[in-house]
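dumping the sequnces here before i forget
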Amino acid sequence: MTFPRLRFAPSPTGYLHVGGARTALFNWLYARKHGGQFLLRVEDTDKARSTDESTRAIFEGLRWLGLHWDEDVVFQAANVSRHRADVERMLESGHAYRCFCSAFELDARRKQAEAAEGAFKYDRRCDQLDAAEVARRVAAGDPHVVRFRVPDGATAWTDLVHGTISFPNKDIEDFVVLRSDATPIYNMAVVSDDVAMRITLVMRGDDHISNTPKQIMLYRALGADLPEFAHLPMIHGADGKKLSKRHGATAVADWQHEGILPQTMVNFLALLGWSPGGEFEEVMSIDELVASFDADGLRKTAAVFDVKKLEWMNGQHLVRMPLADLAPLAGRTIAAAGLATEQELAARGDWYLRLLDLLRVRARTVDDIARQARPFLVQAVTYDEAAAAKAWKDPADARAIVAAAREALVAAPTWDAASLEETLKAVGEARGLATGKLFGPMRVALTGEANSPGMFDVLTLLGRDVAISRLTAAENELARRAEGGA
RNA sequence: GGCGGUAUCGUCUAGGGGACUAGGACGCGGCCCUCUCAAGGCUGUAACACGGGUUCGAAUCCCGUUACCGCUACCA
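..and the predicted 3d for all of it:
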């Protein structure tokens, strides 16, 4: 039994995109499921577009998702001497030849051919050059590229997601493998590295399907064993187009900053293009994903990234995760919002955990939690005007209600839910008010918001002193409003 | 243009010749619960791209059309 070796091979030209993250995830899941290795290779041969910043962002994104790689990261640019050596071998074995046609003249021929009949394919004229002539021009330092000599026939493979795919070789021109500056072309570098890394399964986006026959020919020319291939569908935006900046947040870091949990991202991405089959529970932990993952469940069709569903799923994970794990996470966001320091929150111990437990059920992101925590952490509340307009429609009336509640609460024997309930029920009955009519004005007085956890939770969370003083403050505010309005 | 890939509710998907009156989830609507908002429970809405075959029978197999995507570079 040999264990599979897979790799994720991003080019460091931007942040880790959700599409790339999904590709990395499937490679990782497959490797974990089958006890194999998941490797990381940075394809940094395009020096003009590659940046260290982007390399770091990719590492960070993968780490955030928990997609840890085995073995050291491979930087493709460090391997160009091997890429060249492989090209040299193909030159010697006759699988490749030198081409002295200039890019400029090729371009002209291509334009001409396209105007006339449509398709242009390199006509192999340099393959006719005799050895002495080639040697002379090489010695003279004539700029040239190296082209692969595409054989006759067809190239086919059994794709893990698409089944058999076959390309007639006649439709593939003698493609360049080494540029005139002696740097390798993408397909050459990929194959050389995948062979060197002993990759057994190449799993990547289906935009690489057309590259695959070329790469297979290269493996054969190099005398290397073929890996298996699996081509994953793309991820699209809501308009059905390939995901891009226009669609808003497309970098995994963007979602991290919006309060999406890494386990949600993994769960959501896993279900974009893969399904365990049959009826199944969609909210899954990473361990459950690893356990049920298999290539049979890979879909062929492009999927649309549905933010609504992502957010719903995050709400699910928020509620299911251990409170102890959520506490530091939410703490960071709360601290970033300037509501309290992480130390202060930690010092509040169980009170803080109880607050989180009450808020997370009505939140979809960690940021929602921080927003809702505000009234419980700041000194004085600010009244949301929309909430006030509704619950304090008649300021004089609202003031009377708040005052009555305050008076009763001041006299409450103990400050616990049961006792508070009894106290407030009496207030309602005395004034002939349903609890809704009573709690509405109180809620705005206590939290400044139209919505909050249940009244008794709010009161006990706030504590007697804060609650009473907020009610008093609201009475003053309402008195002001009653005057101003009258 | 050539070559390749894909096509089930708005979205993610189940299903792979008869069990399909096409199932689940998100979203949206309704009801229940209820002090608000959520969560939860129940429920409604909504799909086999089109046309030909094959077959007793097609969402499922075959062919074509259409649409979308990718490749067709000395980009990756």
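The two ends of chain A are 86 Å apart (CA to CA).
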